[in-house]
Design a protein that fits this description.
The protein is α+β, with helices and mostly antiparallel strands. It has three domains: 109 residues, DNA Primase, Chain A (Alpha-Beta Complex); 67 residues, no CATH class; 103 residues, Dna Topoisomerase Vi A Subunit, Chain: A, domain 2. Helix content is 29%, strand content 25%. It has a five-stranded antiparallel sheet. A five-stranded antiparallel sheet has the order 6-7-8-9-10. The two termini are 28 Å apart. About 8% of the residues have low confidence. This is DNA primase.
């Protein structure tokens, strides 16, 4: 990959593969807003825009530039060749639409929810029981029986290249799949929260940032199901969406499993201030010393 090719890559596609989801999409799909990947914040200050046939970025608290500039800043590289090697490696699965391809099929204008964001490049082929992804799941420290109950093997095709892939995935409430394998994480169909009903339905709910944190809890507790309902955010940008859901259903206790970083702290504070005293009970002390619950058992 040379510099000209790299500058034509889609920055939203790169950010998605790095685990960053937009909080808002404007200007007919040509401007994406994100929580800054360079620091912890609750209000999006980082955005990328499609201008002059390529994606450029700007961060109100930092700097800006091309896709190459972003990688050098994000990874702390000092040489362009390092950034090019990184881009080639991260896109080796062939899942990144080019800027030209995105220009032909822009996303719709301002969305009310990130749940409406879809990746048109990835097309679902079939969903089967978990099998080929089990070594990856074991590496993440997750019990096989637990994983098989909640995850599926999601087979899909990259419509740009015609290549087929598979990943472990959990279904979300919009009918899409949140997928991940050792090389990337993304979504097929609409991105949204995931929900697992509790066995007892007792007005209690647990809220996890990611599916691996949820599966870690079950593994550690040596159980297959939760007595209470479970919501998995799948992205911290769904925090407000989750709050609306919880407030409408009037849960009497909300157990939060947010990360032990600044973003997680702010999310916890947001929840504590949004519900009556005593309703929200943070659980992050369970994995004190680790950034998230899965890091406590991850063997990779």
């Amino acid at each position: 990959m040379n510099s000209d090719q790299a500058k034509k890559l889609s920055l939203p596609a790169l950010l998605e593969r790095l685990g960053h989801q937009p909080t808002q999409i404007t200007k007919g799909g040509k401007e994406y807003w994100y929580l800054s990947p360079f620091r912890q914040e609750m209000i999006a200050s980082f955005h990328t825009s499609f201008l002059g046939g390529k994606w450029i970025w700007n961060d109100f608290g930092d700097t800006g530039g091309t896709v190459i500039d972003f990688v050098m800043r994000y990874k702390g590289y000092h040489h362009v060749q390092e950034a090019l090697q990184f881009l080639e490696a991260i896109f080796k699965a062939g899942m990144a639409p080019s800027a030209a391809q995105e220009e032909k099929s822009p996303q719709g204008a301002l969305f009310d929810s990130v749940a409406q964001v879809e990746n048109p490049v990835l097309e679902l082929k079939r969903v089967t029981p978990l099998k080929m992804s089990l070594p990856y799941i074991a590496q993440r420290g997750i019990d096989e029986a637990v994983a098989k109950l909640y995850l599926k093997e999601v087979h899909f095709i990259n419509t740009n290249t015609g290549k087929n892939y598979f990943a472990a995935g959990i279904k979300n409430v919009s009918g899409g799949y949140e997928i991940r394998n050792p090389y990337f994480k993304s979504s097929i169909g609409k991105k949204d929260l995931s929900f697992a009903p509790g066995e007892e339905g007792r007005g209690v709910v647990s809220v996890f940032e990611g599916v691996m944190d949820f599966l870690t809890y079950l593994t550690e507790e040596k159980r297959l199901r939760m007595p209470e309902d479970v919501i998995i955010l799948n992205s911290i940008s769904f925090l407000q969406r989750a709050k609306s859901y919880l407030q409408a259903r009037r849960y009497t206790r909300i157990l939060t499993f947010f990360d032990n970083d600044r973003t997680g702290e702010l999310a916890t504070e947001d929840f504590l201030s949004s519900f009556p005293s005593g309703v929200v009970i943070p659980q992050n002390q369970r994995y004190s010393g680790f950034v998230d619950y899965n890091s406590k058992v991850d063997l990779s």
